[in-house]
Amino acid sequence: MSATSGCWAPTPKARKQLRYRAAEPDLDAYYGDIEQAHLQPLWEMSGLLTPTPVVKAVPYRWSADNLQKLAARAGELVPIDRGGDRRVLAMSNPGLGGAPFISGTLWAAVQFLQAAEVAPAHRHTPGALRFVLDGDGVYTLLDGDPVAMSRGDLILTPSWVYHEHHNPSSAPMMWLDVLDLPMVAALDAVFFEEGPSEEADQSVSPRSAAERRFGQGPGLVPTGVSAAVHDRPHSPLTVYRWAETDATLNSLLEFGDGQQAELRYRDPTRDRDVMPTLRCEMRRVVGGHTTATDQQTGTRVCAVLDGTGTVQLGGQELSLAPGDVFVVPSWCEHQLEATSTLDIFTTSDAPVLEALGLFRRKVA
Amino acid sequence: MSATSGCWAPTPKARKQLRYRAAEPDLDAYYGDIEQAHLQPLWEMSGLLTPTPVVKAVPYRWSADNLQKLAARAGELVPIDRGGDRRVLAMSNPGLGGAPFISGTLWAAVQFLQAAEVAPAHRHTPGALRFVLDGDGVYTLLDGDPVAMSRGDLILTPSWVYHEHHNPSSAPMMWLDVLDLPMVAALDAVFFEEGPSEEADQSVSPRSAAERRFGQGPGLVPTGVSAAVHDRPHSPLTVYRWAETDATLNSLLEFGDGQQAELRYRDPTRDRDVMPTLRCEMRRVVGGHTTATDQQTGTRVCAVLDGTGTVQLGGQELSLAPGDVFVVPSWCEHQLEATSTLDIFTTSDAPVLEALGLFRRKVA
Amino acid sequence: MSATSGCWAPTPKARKQLRYRAAEPDLDAYYGDIEQAHLQPLWEMSGLLTPTPVVKAVPYRWSADNLQKLAARAGELVPIDRGGDRRVLAMSNPGLGGAPFISGTLWAAVQFLQAAEVAPAHRHTPGALRFVLDGDGVYTLLDGDPVAMSRGDLILTPSWVYHEHHNPSSAPMMWLDVLDLPMVAALDAVFFEEGPSEEADQSVSPRSAAERRFGQGPGLVPTGVSAAVHDRPHSPLTVYRWAETDATLNSLLEFGDGQQAELRYRDPTRDRDVMPTLRCEMRRVVGGHTTATDQQTGTRVCAVLDGTGTVQLGGQELSLAPGDVFVVPSWCEHQLEATSTLDIFTTSDAPVLEALGLFRRKVA
Amino acid sequence: MSATSGCWAPTPKARKQLRYRAAEPDLDAYYGDIEQAHLQPLWEMSGLLTPTPVVKAVPYRWSADNLQKLAARAGELVPIDRGGDRRVLAMSNPGLGGAPFISGTLWAAVQFLQAAEVAPAHRHTPGALRFVLDGDGVYTLLDGDPVAMSRGDLILTPSWVYHEHHNPSSAPMMWLDVLDLPMVAALDAVFFEEGPSEEADQSVSPRSAAERRFGQGPGLVPTGVSAAVHDRPHSPLTVYRWAETDATLNSLLEFGDGQQAELRYRDPTRDRDVMPTLRCEMRRVVGGHTTATDQQTGTRVCAVLDGTGTVQLGGQELSLAPGDVFVVPSWCEHQLEATSTLDIFTTSDAPVLEALGLFRRKVA
Q1: d(Cα A222, Cα A225) in Å, to the nearest integer?
Q2: CB-based contacts of C299, cutoff 8 Å, min separation 6
Q3: Which of C8, C92, C355 sits opposite D276 (nearest CB)?
Q4: Which chain B residue has its CA at the smallest distance from C266's CA?
Q5: Where is the Cupin type-2 domain (chains A, B, C, D) (predicted)?
Q6: What percentage of residues in chain D have a pLDDT greater than 70?
Q7: What integer pLDDT is reported at residue A310 of this predicted model?
Q8: Cα–Cα distance between A310 and B30 in angstroms, integer?
Q9: Is pLDDT of B119 > 60?
Q10: What's the pLDDT band for A84 if we cut at 50, 70, 90?
Q11: Contact status, residue A186 vs residue B104, Cβ threshold 8 Å
Q12: What is the pLDDT of residues C124-181, one digit of tens each?
C-alpha cells in the first residue's frame, strides 16, 4: 500500500517548464501572488480536457487461483473480530499507484469467512453487492432478512441497509464484493454506523423475505407495499438466484443468434437498475464464439462464473478461467472469445454515467 | 501547483504500524505475496468508512478584491490565443494539496476577457455555468446562439455544447465559471473537441434564441419541439436574467417571513435542475437577519452578488462583500448573517447526490 | 333539452333484422334465454369496432354575437342565487341529440356575471378552465387565492379546488368555461361539495399568490415547496396572462416561417399539461396564411380571441370572428385560413388520449 | 338489446317542470331562442354535479352455470366465420338500459371456441384481456407469438396488437374477455383493422416468446431491447401463468395475517399496470375470513377462479361459486366472506382514474 490516490488530478507542469515564464520577472512575481491567493493559472495546466478519457486504471485480471489461495491464507493468519470487521482482500489496480481500488470509482474484493465465523452488522452509504463464484453455506442478514448465499447468486447490500455475514456451516466460504466506495468517498458522502450486536445463528430458509414478496414471478407484485419500501432508491428484491439467471440466459440464447445472450438484473418493480450506482449483468458466450468489440464509459468489473476463453482489453490478451476477476477501464476496447461456454457476471457504474448524461457506448 | 490530488484515498498505515505484523514472519511473507498479487488487506486500512464524511476540502473565501486585481493582471501579462484557449484563474482549495479544484468534485474560476478578445469555440463533456458578478459587454455563443452576459445573469454551457466567448466591447469583463470537471474526470468520462473557427463579432440581440423559445413566460412552451431538443439532458433555456431573478426574489419575500427568500433555477419544461450535475440557486437574506444553520452532503460554491455580512462555516467566521466567492464543503455547518441585504448565488452538485440516493440535509 | 345521451352506444339491430334469426325457433328461444340472463350476442351487433372513429358530435360554431346577446338576456331574466349557483349557457352539440355537451367528453359554456354579483364557492372533481374572450372586472377565488380575470387570460380551476366568482365592478362580464365533466361523469367519478359562505368583495391584487410564487420568471421556482403543493396532479400556476402569451407568440413567430406560431400552456414545474384532462394551446395564424390540414383523436374546443378567417371542418366551411367558439370532433379534418391575423385558443382532452395510448395525429 | 345508451347524461327536467318558467312569457321565448342557438341553461339541469357518484350500473353477478350453458348453446347454434368474427356473449348490466356493457366503461363477455375452430386475426385500439376460468387447449396469436391458454392464466391483448384464437384441441373452450371498449368509444378513439389471413394451426410451445424474453425470472431483463418494444404503452409480458400467481399468493399469505393476500399483475420492466386502461389483480381470501369493506372509484369486474362464499355489494348479498363473474360499480361498498378459500381475479379501470387524478379509495 502506497500513499498515492486512485483518483484523478491534472498533471501539473514542473515550474521550470512553465510556458510563459522564460525570463519574465513580472510573470514570475504574478505566479507567486496568485499562489498566495490560492489561485492557479489554467494556461499552465495540461491534461485537463482530453479528446477521449485518459484513464489511470489499467486492464488487469486477478486469477481465481491467487484469489482463493491468498484468501484462504488470510483465513488462517488473520482473525476476524469486531475491530477488524471483515476479512477482505481488495483488488488494487496496478495503474492507481497503490490505492486499494479496482478503478477510480469502484472497489472490488474477495471476502473470506471461516466456518462458524460471523462478520458483525453495520451499514454505510456506499452500496455493495456480493457475487458468489463458488460454494455456499453463508447467509447475509439484510435489515434482519436472512439471505442464503450460493454459487451464481447475486446479493445486494444497498446503501444504508444493515448487513452482517454468518457462516454456520462447517466449511469456509469466499465471495466477490463490489462497492461504489471510491465514488461515494469522492463525493464526500460516506456515513457509517455499527449495527446492533450480532444475532445467534439461526436456521435460514432457502428463500428470503425479499424473495417471497418480490421474487416469486415476474410482474407479480404485492398490493399494499408501504411508501417506506416503495420509495427506497434501490430494488426491493435483494437476491437474484442462479437457477433463474441460468434459465433466463438459456431462454434468451434461443432468441438471438444462439451464440450469446445477456441479461440485466433490474428492480422488478421499476424501470431502473438494482441500485442507483451499480448496474449488474450476466452474459453467456457459447464456446467457439467471439463477441463484437465494444467500448463504454465507466468501469466494468467482470467475474468468470464458468467457462474458459480469452478477453482482449485494449490490445492486451488475457486468458480466462472460472473464478477469475478482471477490470475493463473506461473507454477501453473489450472483446471476448469463448473456448468453452463462458458465463460472465459484470457490474459497472453505468447508471451513474447515464444519470449524469455521460454514458457513451460504441460497438465495432 | 503541487502534484497531489484533490481526490479521495484512504490513508494507508505505514508498514511499521501494521496491526498484525509484530514479529510474525508468516504474516510478513503473506503481505509480500498479496502485494505481488495486487491485493490489499482491508484490516490494515483506516479511514475507509467513517461515521460522517471526512472531507479534505476546507471552507475558504476568495475576496472580490483579489479576484479582480489578479484577473486584471493576467489580462495584461498573458495573451489569449488558440493555444491557450481561456484566461482563467482556478480557485484551489487549500485542503486539496495544490489541486486546482475548489472541492473534490467542482472546479470554480474567474475568467477574464479583454476588450476585442475572443475565446474560441470548443465543447467538452464536463458541464459549465457562468455567473456574472459585475459588468457586461461579452457574449457567449452556445451551439451558435449568441447570449449577451450582464451582471446577475446565469448562463449555462451544458455538457457537449459548443461555446465561445466574444468581447466586442471596449472594456474588459470578468465572470465566475463553475464546472463539474473533477467529477467527470473521476468518472473517466472527459471528452473534448475543438469547435469550428470563431465567427466574426456580430451584433447581438439582448435576447437569445433560447430565451425567445423557452424564456418568454412561465409555462408557455412552444409546440413542435423536436425530440433532439426535448431529449437533451439539460434545460433548453440556457440563460436566466437578473431582472427576472430579482423580481422573483421580491415576490417570494412577501410569502415567507419577509426575512429571506430562495429560488431554484430549473428546466422550465421539466421537473429537474438545469443540468444533471449542477443545481443553481439564488438566496436573498434581508439586512439584520441571520439564517438557520444547515448542513448538506456535496459541495456548495457561493458567490456574493450584492450586500455584506458574515458566513459561519464549521466554526469559522468569514466576512462577505460583493464579488466574494466561498466554498461550503460537504456536511460543513453553514449559516449566514446579513449586515446589508445579501444576494447570494449558489451552485452545487446536489443533483448528483440526489440521483445516487446520497443527498442528506439537516437544518438546525 | 331532450332526454338523449351524448355518449356512445352501439346501434343495435332491430329484432326483425337479426342475422341468424330467420325461421329458426331454437335461436329465437336462445335469444330469449340470454336476454333473461343479461347477456347479449356480439354477432348481432354492428358499429362496435369501426375502421376509424364514428363520432356523434359534429363540427359546429357558436357565433360571438349569439353568445353575447343570449348571455346578456339571461343576465336580465334569471337571478343568480345559491340555489342556481351559476348563470351558464352550455353549448349543446347538434349531433348529441340534446345532451348539454359540446362533445362526448367535454362541456363548454359561457358564464355571465352581473355587476356586484357573486357566484358562491364550491368544488368538484371535474376540472375546469376559464378563458376570457372580452372584458374584465371579475375575480375568481381559487382555494382562497384571488385571481383577477382579463381579456386573453387563461384561468384554471382544477379538480377539487374551491372556486367562486365575484364581480365587484360596475359592468357585467362574460367568459368561456370548459370542463371535462362528461368524461368524469362517464367514469362515475363526480364528487361535489359546497364551499364556505362567500367572502365579502375585496381589493384584488393584479397578481395572484400563485403567480407570485410560480409565475414570475420561466424556470425560477421557489425552494421549499411543500409536498402538498408539489404532489397535486395539476399546475401550481393557475393563471396565464395574455401579455405574456402574446409576447411569446410574437417571439415564436420569428422562429418559424413567420406565418404561424403555437404555444402550449404547461405546468411550469413539470413535464406535463396544466391539468391531467385538459390541454391548452394558443395559436396565431398571420392574415393571408392557410394552415396545413390536421386530424387528431379527441375533441378540440376552439375560441377566437382575435382576427377573422375561415375554418374547414370535415368539408364544412365556417367563417370566424372574434368571440366565436367552435368544436373540432375527434379525427375530423381541420384547417384554418386567416383573413386578418387569427389568435385562437384551443383546449382538448389530448392528455387523456395520450395517457391511455390512444392519441393519434395526422398532418396532411 | 334495447337502444338506450349505457353512458352518462344528465336527467333533464320536463318542460313543464322548468323552475323559472311559470307564467313568464319572456323566459319562454328566451328558452326557445337558446334552443335554436344550441345552448342550454345550466340552471334548469339537475344531476350534473352530485355529492358522490350517481352510477347507472348496478351490482350484478352472472352465474358460472348460466355462462357455461348459454355459451355452449351458442356453440351449437351459431357458426363462427369471418363475418361474425367472434362467438361472444356480452354481459349487459341491468342498470344500463340494454347496452351491452358491464358498466359505463368496461365490456365483459364470455367467448366460446369449438374444437378445430379459429377466430381470425384483427386488431383494434380498445385493449383486451382474457382470463381462463376453466379448461385449456386454445392458443392466442399476439402479433404472431402463440400463447397457450390454461386455467388461471391471464393473457393480454393490448391496444393495436393483432390477435387471433385457435382451438386445435378436440374439446370446446370458454374464457372471460374484458375490454375497455366503452371508454375508448366514449373517447371517440376506436380504430380497427382486419389481420392477415389466419395461419394454419401449429404446434405451440408451452411458453410464448414474450415469456421467454420477459417472463423467466423477476428482475431479469434482456439487454438490447429495441426502442420499438420498450416504448410501447403496455407490458411486454403478455401472459401471466397460474402456477406463478398461485405460488406468489401463497408466499404473500405468509407475510400478512394469513387470512388474505393480494397481488397486482404489473409490467415487469416498469412501474406501471399491464395496460394503461386496465389494472389486474388476484386476491386469495382464506375460508372463514371476512374482508374489510372498501369503496373505490371506477368499475371492478371480478371472476371467481376457485372457492365459495358471499360478496356484499352496496347492501346486496350475492353467493359466489367457481366461474361466477360479478361487477362492482364505482364507489359501491364491497366486502367478501369466504366459505371455502376464494381466489378472485379482478380487473378495473383504476389506472385511468389514477392518471386523471380521480382515483379515490376508502377502506372501512
Answers
A1: 6
A2: C57, C102, C103, C104, C105, C106, C327, C328, C329, C330, C348, C349, D188
A3: C355
A4: B219
A5: 113-178, 290-341
A6: 91
A7: 98
A8: 29
A9: yes
A10: low
A11: yes
A12: 999 999 999 999 999 999 999 999 999 999 999 999 999 999 999 999 999 999 999 9
Q: Do chains A and D touch (3 or more CB pairs under 8 A)?
A: yes
C-alpha cell at A233: 432508491
**Which chain B residues are closer than 8 Å to C156 by Cβ?**
none
D41 and C74 in contact by Cβ < 8 A?
Answer: yes
* C-alpha cell at position B97: 494539496
Question: pTM of the prediction?
Answer: 0.94
**Could you report the per-residue pLDDT of B269-308, keeping only the tens digit for each?**
999 999 999 999 999 999 999 999 999 999 999 999 999 9
- pLDDT of residue D6 exceeding 60: no
Looking at chain D, how many residues does it have? 364
Phi, psi of B274 (to 5 degrees): -65, -30
Q: Which of D39, D42, D330 sits opposite C189 (nearest CB)?
A: D330
Burial D150-188 (b: 16+ CB within 10 A, else e): bebbbbbbbbbbbbbbbbbbeebbbbbbbbbbbbbbbbb
With residue C41 as reference, give the H or E element that holds it: strand C39-41
* Residue pair C245/B220 in contact by the 8 Å Cβ criterion: yes
Nearest-Cα residue of chain B relative to residue C231: B271
- Tell me, rounded to whole angstroms, the distance of Cα D348 from its chain centroid: 6
Within 10 A of B254 (CB to CB), how many other CB atoms are there? Answer: 11
> pLDDT tens, A198-233?
666 667 888 999 999 999 889 999 998 898 888 999
Residue C82 has pLDDT above 80, yes or no: no
Domains and CATH numbers, chain D: 11-46 (no CATH), 60-363 (2.60.120.10)
The answer to whether A292 and A30 are in contact (CB under 8 A) is no
Kindly state the cell numbers that stand for A75: 483465513
Question: Which chains border C (3 or more CB–CB pairs < 8 Å)?
Answer: B, D
Average pLDDT, chain B: 91
Task: For helices B64-77 and A25-36, give the axis angle rounded to 10 degrees.
Answer: 160
> How many degrees, rounded to 5, is the angle at CA D24 between CA D23 and CA D25?
105
pLDDT of B317 > 80? The answer is yes
The sign of the torsion formed by the CA atoms of D143, D146, D149, D153 equals negative
Residue A307 half-sphere exposure toward CB, CA atoms < 13 A: 23
D134's CB contacts (< 8 A; 6+ apart) are: D151, D174, D322, D323
Q: Which string of DSSP letters, residue by residue, matches B276-287? A: SS-EEEEEEE-T
Burial of residue B340 (CB within 10 Å: 0-12, 13-18, 19+) is: middle
Interface predicted TM-score (ipTM) of this complex, two decimals: 0.94
Nearest CA-CA partner of A59 in A352, A338, A310: A310
Q: How far apart are the CA of D265 and the nearest CA of chain A, in angstroms? A: 5
Look up residue C83 and give its amino acid: G
Q: Which three cell numbers stand for residue B2?
A: 503541487
- State the alpha helices, DSSP H only, in B23-77: 25-36, 64-77
Q: Is the pLDDT of residue C3 over 50?
A: no
Grid cell 334465454 in the structure block, residue: C33
Phi and psi torsions of D340, nearest 5°? -110, 165
**Collapsing DSSP states into helix, strand and coil, what is residue D351?**
helix
Using a 10 angstrom Cβ sphere, with 0-12 exposed, 13-18 middle and 19 or more buried, the burial of residue C224 is: exposed
The residues facing C280 across adjacent strands are C265, C347
In this prediction, residue B13 has a pLDDT band, given cuts at 50, 70 and 90, of very low
Q: CA D66, D72, D78: angle at the middle one, nearest 5? A: 120
Contact A7 B7 (CB under 8 A): yes
Tell me how far apart the alpha carbons of residues C275 and C273 are, in angstroms, rounded to a whole number.
5
Q: Give the residue among D293, D258, D274, D290 at the shortest CA–CA distance from D349.
A: D274
Q: Where are the alpha helices (DSSP H) in C64-133?
A: 64-77
Q: Report the distance separating Cα C208 and Cα C239, nearest Å.
A: 8
Q: Which three cell numbers stand for residue D104?
A: 359505463
